[in-house]
Design goal:
By secondary structure, this protein is α/β, with parallel strands linked by helices. The chain is about 50% helix and about 15% strand. α2 crosses α15, α4 crosses α7 and α8 packs parallel to α11 (about 220-235). The two termini are about 30 Å apart.
Length: about 350
């Protein structure tokens, strides 16, 4: 894919991350989107940063990853980053966002609770799904704009430092990311004036800002890579800024290019493997060598596929970051390693 002259583009990883305040992380289901979003939040918090990690799908994926109790619908500090930084987490909820919105702008928290008790919020979002996204994006963009001094002032007011240095959104998957972010068009049929319209306008101003980036998480497999390419095209066509492509679960490089091609084409030298196993004193080296040869050829075929798909992703013109496959999953203890790897590749504030 060639870069379009009429669209916003970024250069290397530094431009994809540095200076951005809202990092929207999307990807096909099963690619490790939540793990990558959490690791990115840790990376951005390194050396004293304050970062908010937000999830909006109601899956409590971050809580599961951190092996913690379900997250409340309020911000709380959850992770410490190297150099004195911290990551707070939030499970954003449309109903909680509405209550806060009514309280912040109209002093109507009690009336909002009454509406909630009557089921008005659920009813409204069921007949107008776009309203839910407006409420959620409104909550996220409020956190991006919030200044020191608390939440008692409308977003963007005040001159103090921002409460958070960056906000990372564990966003909906690529199949829904376009409609989720394009809240202005989603709400156009609901209201052309009034509070809902104004909320959407404020949210879109932040989403379309040059300090917002949409990052795509994929694995080196055919379907996720194709969906990533299509997602990048959709986001660019919407005028939003694509950041980096983060390729998760990349296998290790065990063979040089020549051996990799030869092994994939004809398999490894079984006799050589047998001799090596025999020299090591293993029992029944001939039987064991057949299994090892089969595993090695499978690896070679798989790795060649990964290399081809990585090449296709580079054709998008987006900075490409890679993370290794974690055989034992990604518990809390592994996140620091993923964050360090992202930092080494340019994921910094």
């Amino acid at each position: 894919m060639n870069e379009r002259e009429d669209g916003p583009h970024d250069g290397g990883p530094e431009e994809a991350f540095a200076g951005a305040r809202l990092h929207i992380v999307t990807g096909k289901g099963g690619t490790g989107k939540t793990t990558v979003a959490t690791a990115l939040a840790l990376a951005l918090a390194t050396d004293g940063g304050r970062v908010l990690l937000v999830e909006v799908e109601g899956r409590q994926g971050v809580a599961s990853l951190l092996e913690s109790d379900p997250l409340p619908h309020e911000e709380r500090e959850a992770l410490s980053a190297p150099g004195g930084g911290s990551v707070s987490v939030l499970a954003a909820d449309a109903e909680a966002a509405l209550l806060e919105y009514l309280d912040l702008f109209y002093g109507m928290r009690r009336a909002g609770r009454a509406l909630s008790g009557l089921g008005a919020v659920d009813f409204a979002t069921s007949i107008a799904p776009g309203l839910r996204d407006v409420l959620l994006t409104g909550k996220i963009t409020e956190a991006v704009q919030r200044r020191e001094g608390g939440r008692r002032r409308p977003p963007g007011s005040g001159t103090g430092r921002h409460h958070y240095d960056a906000v990372v959104l564990d966003a909906p998957p690529t199949g829904r990311i376009g409609s989720f972010l394009n809240v202005h068009s989603e709400v156009a049929g609901l209201a052309t004036t009034g509070p809902v319209h104004d909320q959407a306008e404020r949210a879109m101003k932040v989403v379309r800002s040059d300090r917002t980036r949409v990052h795509f998480v994929t694995t080196p497999e055919e379907m996720p890579v194709q969906e990533t390419r299509e997602g990048i095209a959709e986001i660019e066509a919407s005028g939003l800024r694509v950041g980096a492509v983060i390729v998760n679960m990349v296998g290790p490089t065990l063979l040089d290019a020549a051996d990799l091609s030869a092994t994939a084409a004809a398999g490894p030298d079984v006799d050589a493997i047998t001799e090596g196993l025999k020299a090591a004193g293993l029992d029944d080296p001939a039987l064991l060598s057949e299994g090892l040869a089969s595993e090695l050829r499978t690896y070679a075929l798989r790795h060649l596929l990964e290399l081809r798909l990585l090449g296709e992703l580079r054709e998008t013109g987006r900075p490409l970051l890679t993370l290794s496959r974690l055989e034992s999953g990604a518990p809390r203890s592994a996140l620091s390693g993923l964050a360090r790897r992202l930092t080494e590749q340019g994921a910094r504030r």
